[in-house]
Amino acid sequence: GNSVTQMEGPVTLSEEAFLTINCTYTATGYPSLFWYVQYPGEGLQLLLKATKADDKGSNKGFEATYRKETTSFHLEKGSVQVSDSAVYFCALTVSNFGNEKLTFGTGTRLTIIP
Amino acid sequence: EAGVVQSPRYKIIEKKQPVAFWCNPISGHNTLYWYLQNLGQGPELLIRYENEEAVDDSQLPKDRFSAERLKGVDSTLKIQPAELGDSAVYLCASSFEPSYEQFFGPGTRLTVL
Q: What are the b/e assignments for B71-103, b being 16+ CB within 10 Å?
């Protein structure tokens, strides 16, 4: 089956620090990979995505590269801000003739200290 | 453009009581999803609708859970009777079509005492 394993939290960093949140996956088929973010009191929002190997998704200073050889999709940001404090979820879907189902990791809570 | 609307945002009930959650998707979105998110876990799909048809309900515990989307727009998820283990956040999401980006509502946090 499909599964996503992501770095356990919580993660606490100082403002302007470099961020990496690890994510690895197993999938039956060729997955599309996603990072979702959940800010306090809000719903999940799509942060970035990549649909094929070596693609790099990017948004709001965050990046993640689809690495097929290591089955990974690590999230990175060069300089985090207090406003980045949230829970981050790695997820995948495998195309199944329109029956795509999102499979999520357990989430990583990130707290940025000023 | 309004996002996915869910109500109530919070609900506290005693075990064995019934409870219902309501979701109004983004206008024009044909596909609607209900997810269960346990504390410290990622969301898990309960049911997916395409218009008014439930096309994937394999993860819905049908002995106590039911859902409907009668006119293919808003949807209701019901639990009867609720158990202590049902305490969780229930998320609704919608998309234009199944292969398109899903947009999530803020969720309903259920506490069963």
A: eebebebebeebeeebbbbbbbbbbeebeeebb
